[in-house]
Specification:
single chain, alpha+beta, about 170 residues, OB fold (Dihydrolipoamide Acetyltransferase, E2P), 5-stranded mixed beta barrel, elongated
Length: about 170
């Protein structure tokens, strides 16, 4: 079977196209992996060092002072309410502490949300966790702290009441 000039040219073109495609993939794949890992690495570094807030500030005298001051944790507000009443509040700010109740709040733009968190003093009640030392207690919570609360909503209204199961400082 004889091949015509057009057939051999098509095979050469298709082989050339395959080679170009393979070379492109071999170059693009590591580049894509590098960019992905760079993004992940820069996000984790900015979270650890708090540098993301300082990196976006223009370099003026005020910016230099802000960059040298201790980095404040940027809250990532999160609220989950399940259909059975179980609730998670992440990075809720402590507004006040009265007796065994902690009043916490969150702000999104112009919306303010607040909850009353009941702490159970019994041995089978609320558990407190502090990420660095492990254990914590009710006495470790102060006004202005950011806390994460899990529990159950026991009352609704303008300021729902949550019976806390876990409080993380």
């Amino acid at each position: 079977m004889k091949r015509s000039f057009a057939d051999s040219k098509r095979q050469k073109v298709s082989k050339n196209q395959k080679v170009v495609l393979i070379v492109t993939i071999l170059i693009a794949a590591p580049l894509a992996v590098f960019l992905f890992l760079h993004q992940v690495g820069s996000r984790s570094l900015s979270r650890q060092s708090g540098a993301s807030a300082a990196a976006n500030i223009p370099t003026t005298n005020v910016a230099i002072a802000a960059a040298t001051s201790p980095a404040e944790k940027v809250p990532i507000y999160e609220v989950h309410i399940a259909n059975n009443g179980i609730i998670l509040l992440r990075d809720a700010r402590v507004i006040s502490i009265i007796g065994n109740d902690i009043r916490v709040g969150m702000k999104w733009d112009r919306a303010d949300f607040s909850w009353r968190v009941r702490i159970s003093p019994s041995s089978i009640g609320t558990a407190f966790v502090e990420p660095k030392n492990g254990k914590a207690g009710f006495e470790d919570i102060q006004v202005g702290d950011l806390i994460t609360v899990t529990g159950k909503i026991t009352s609704s209204g303008a300021e729902p009441i949550i019976d806390a199961q876990f409080v993380r400082l």
